[in-house]
Amino acid sequence: MHKKKMEPERLVFNLIAYGVVVVLTLASILPFLMIISGSLSSTQSIMKNGYSLWVQDFTLDAYRMVFRFPQEVGRSYLVSIFVTAVGTVLGLFIMTMAGYVLQRRDLRYSGQIAFFFYFTTLFSGGLVPWYMLISKMGLKESVWSLVFPMMCSPFNILLIRNFMKQIPESLTESARIDGAGDFYIFRKIIVPLSKPILATVGLFLALAYWNNWYLASLFINDVN
User: Fold this and answer.
1) What is the pLDDT of residues 86-128, one digit of tens each?
2) pTM above the 0.85 mark?
3) Three-state DSSP class for residue 87
4) Contacts of 197 (CB under 8 A, 6+ apart)
5) What CA–CA distance (Å, rounded) separates 33 from 30?
6) How far apart are CA 51 and CA 176, in angstroms?
7) Is 215 in contact with 145 (CB distance < 8 Å)?
8) CA distance 29 to 26
9) Which of 21, 50, 164, 177 could share a disulfide with 103, CB 3.0–4.6 Å?
10) What is the pLDDT of residues 79-94, one digit of tens each?
11) How far apart are alpha carbons 89 and 202 in whole angstroms?
12) Is 88:71 a contact under the CB 8 Å cutoff?
């Protein structure tokens, strides 16, 4: 049997689609290649010429440093894993409950309260008041200074709220008629139906915690 020839429009679409995928793939791979190249280049060459795809002044000093101080490197990874895991779990729990409360139609002034959350995404109090607040709470030189400040994001709360508003209210009303309380409804109905948004927000949180270095530069001075 003769193969059916592809229509010109379909062929052009496939070429463009594959081209976009190839470009995006290369854009995702290039940073990793630059990291590998930088790890094999000397510090002097990187400071002089910057990072590149090609190794400059080949050296294994970075890898020797890792194996020379395995305890410090291992402890650093344990801190990152702890902060990411604990911060993601606590943040998801708090923001999911906040989103559930804000989407309740029987909550008085729910729109006004949600506006205050939204307002903080447009304007912030600034770095100095925020730094003073964290310091007054006694979180400096503590691992919790890496967890608490990022644990609650108004933007993520609004995402969860808007998703939960799409859940039919008849489900919760029928559960209340059967005698279910708010926490039971939240745990047995709302959370299982909100798994897509929880997975999305959880990924946002985990990546933010794992890649965060700014909080440690502000609140942690003791290397131990």
Assistant:
1) 999 999 999 999 998 888 877 787 778 888 888 888 877 778 8
2) no
3) helix
4) 159, 160, 163, 164
5) 5
6) 61
7) yes
8) 5
9) 164
10) 899 999 999 999 999 9
11) 8
12) no
SS3 labels along 100-147: HHHHCCCCCCHHHHHHHHHHHHHCCCCHHHHHHHHHHCCCCCCHHHHC
Q: Tens of pLDDT along 145-163? A: 889 888 888 899 999 998 9
Contacts of 220 (CB under 8 A, 6+ apart): 140, 141, 145, 146
Which residue bears the tokens 């923001």?
95
Which two structure tokens, joined as six digits, stand for 62? 């970075």
- E strand segments, 1-90: none
Both tokens assigned to 58: 């080949």
The structure tokens listed for 123 are 């304007």
* DSSP symbols for 184-203: HHIIIIIHHHTHHHHHHHHH
